[in-house]
User: Fold this.
Amino acid sequence: MEKQTSRRNFVKGAVATAAAFNFQVVPSRVFGANDKINLAGIGISGKGASDIGNSAGAGFNISHLCDIVDKDKYPNVGGNWVKTRENYPDAKFYDDWREMLEAEGDKIDAVTVSTPDHVHAHASVAAMKKGCAVYCQKPLTHGIWEARKLTEYAAETGVVTQMGNQAHAEDHMRRVVELVRAGLIGDVTEVHAWTNRPIWPQGIPEWPEGEEAPKHINWDLWLGPAEYVPYSSKIAPFKWRGYWNFGTGALGDMACHIMDLSYWAADLGAPTSVKAVSADGRGAQSEVSPPTWATIEYEFPKRGDKPPVKYTWYDGYKDAVFNPEKWSLESNIDGGKIRERNLPPKDILEGFGGDERGGYGCVLIGTQGKIWFNRGKDNWVVKPGNLMDGFDFPEKSIPRARDEDPHKEFYDAIKAGDPELPQSNFAQSGPFTEMVLLGNLAVRLNKKVKWDSENLTSPNTPEAAELIKREYRDGWALGV
Assistant:
């Protein structure tokens, strides 16, 4: 490991110099063909298991694994916690990523961060402090201020970064970005985006009754920077997305996928305001949980010679109510399966956007026509069809990812020492995440929020400050 230790020390010294003189440094060493790139997986079950597996397939050496569940101490535990450990038996295991990075940081070149949302920023910053490249799942952070800090710190350290919104690496998305930028539908003036989420309970009026945590779960470590609440099986391991403390609701879960194409293609930047209409009725609004459905409208200003854009997001089910006895969502019509999707008006969808296209998608409306896009399919649709006649198709201008694979793009960027190669790097995905999470600000405050992006403040809703930058538990400062 002598070469790696030497390289890590170089990166640390470069970062320290950059901080002292307030300029950006990009580590310049290019890995040789036979050099291993050691990767640590932070979060090894669920999405973490697939991120680690895909990273191994991209070429990474899985050298370290970290999760709160330790099968060595509790061998009867099952699931991907065990499978991932078995798949990489030589990887050194830790249950605390802080201890892992402190003890092993000079042996780790990159990390995947596949934890619940509320830990994303803390684990990513800690890794960047060690000079590690970071692949962090979407949404990049739990809060708006955290997204800004990750963007700034990635630029300061010069490490390779990437957010895990996978379709960003696919050729069909990059091609549609190029076509929209080339004027296929004219100037974008309006966007509508929708999802089939949530698939977990939301509209929860109060915290579930506490339970004794299973012995194999370190609940205090799982909570990390978030406010303490007692363990409940109605929170972890999966339903945490439906609690403001840990998740970001349907918007945070899916918008970084579904809004991606339009935000990128139209170069939207920061909105000037955002407002929301969300569910009312039994258990729909609470301080604990996102609502059962929400329609969120962002207003973006002119960008150079480009006109303003109105952007509307739709999530949830109009007939959904939370049933505390079943701890699930059900229809308010007959107590059965929820079915009334919150979708754009029919004149916007024109027959597209229902379950036949996976239950999610977006439509960009321009001064000359419309384009419907679904990240999971490459059969995007343009209306009117004659927009394609005689259109001067542009040359490819966005670099293509190897095999349309985000993990391979991340690997290749580290090999080349090029932080700009991943197209969803933190310089792109940080501001994008800020924009997405502003929608939740409007939902929680239940009023129109005017937005000052430069200062991360809302001029008309000073009460937003505690949601923009929330308090952490003692000992969990972000450190930047």
Observations:
- The longest strand covers residues 293-300.
- The chain has two domains: 2-168+407-425, 171-399+432-468.
- Residues 1-29 have pLDDT under 50 and may be disordered.
- The radius of gyration is 22 Å.
